[in-house]
Design brief:
The chain is about 50% helix and about 10% strand. The model has no long low-confidence stretch (mean pLDDT about 95). It has about 110 residues and is mostly helical. The protein has a two-stranded antiparallel ribbon. It starts with a helix and ends with a helix.
């Protein structure tokens, strides 16, 4: 898919903040980074505004979504074209991260 096809598919809406932008203010983000085995297929690409993509930086998607509750909610509502296997992987990583934080919180009491 081309960048413009990804943007059009996603309605020119950032899957993290939920806002609609002109194409020149958008970027394509890989759900599973290419350095971690991700590909350039449409099921691994989402639309992100420059601000959200900069905020995410080089963090793993689960790390970013864990730190940004609004982005987490929007991602699962708006990233409808992402491959189910990628969504499951992110959900599993978030569940492990959430459980780890809950254990730490419980131990701190």
């Amino acid at each position: 898919m081309t960048r413009n096809q990804v943007f059009a598919r996603d309605g020119y809406r950032c899957v993290y903040c939920g806002e609609i932008f002109p194409a020149e203010e958008l970027t394509v983000d890989h759900v599973q980074p290419r350095v971690r085995g991700g590909d350039r297929s449409g099921g691994n690409l989402v639309t992100a505004c420059r601000g959200c993509n900069t905020l995410k930086g080089h963090r793993k998607l689960a790390d970013f979504l864990s730190a940004e509750p609004v982005a987490r909610k929007n991602f699962f509502a708006l990233a409808t074209a992402v491959w189910p296997r990628h969504l499951r992987a992110v959900e599993e990583q978030l569940a492990r991260r959430d459980a780890k934080h809950a254990r730490r919180r419980d131990l701190g009491r």
